Amino acid sequence: MARFFGFYIVCMISFGVSPAQILTLTTEEIAIRTSRLEHFNGPVQLRRWEIADDTVDEWKQWEMVDNYSFGINRGRMSMIADLQSLHPYFRDKVLELIQKCKQKGIELALVETYRTHAKQTEYRTMGRKYTRTRAGQSKHQYGLAVDVVPIIDSIPQWRNMKLWRKIGPIGERLGLRWGGRWNKLFDPGHFEWTGGTGTYHLAKGNFPPVPQPEKYPCLDEDLRELQRHWKAWEVEQATLARTLRQRQRSTVTASTAKTVLRGGEE
Length: 266
Ligand SMILES: [Zn+2]
Fold this sequence. Notes:
The protein has helices spanning 2-15, 19-22, 27-35, 43-46, 88-103, 117-125, 161-173, 199-203, 219-262, and strands at residues 64-65, 79-80, 107-112, 145-152, 155-156, 177-178, 190-192. It is an alpha+beta fold. Zinc ion binds at residues 140, 145, 147, 190.
């Protein structure tokens, strides 16, 4: 977040205007932005963000979530669960969602934010109950979707419909599309925003125009930077996926050899 502010400050300096001249944030919006520092997603607040350096490798510091961290199988590759990995406008909406749920006594945990094509492909190989969406087709691949789960006493509440029914409409009132409305693949933890832009345009690198663009004076630069970080993660996870596949193949070969040695099939 401070990184975001840092960039924002740099933009302000380069435009030669004061923040007050450009940004007309309400008290609530200021509170939301400030609260990023206190967001429960621990390590975010412990990070040190610098303006001058630390821009190239920012992606390496994104918060990650390991498989089974929230009690369910989400594949062998870690999930990116960091607000910094999201489109700036959508990021603010997710923060508002977290904030508004908090006001109602609901604590939300971030399960996944930006998702690489490699990770999406991993979900596809895990079966239709995980996803039917191909790599490049999910809004997660454009920093425009998030998966959350409510937590009570440190326990994820995946099946707590009473809670989901409260959370979903809060997100919808913020203009987000809620996966809890989907009949085919009911996904109550999923929220997304595309501003009406289809996957075809997103895949071509065209992002939706944001409402109140004056609040995002550095949006184009922010998005270009984000895309660089996404690309870096793509390389990282594509390499990891290859390694995992090779390992799996050699395990299968080894077990086949064992079966042959035992002289039979099982
Ligand atoms: Zn999702």
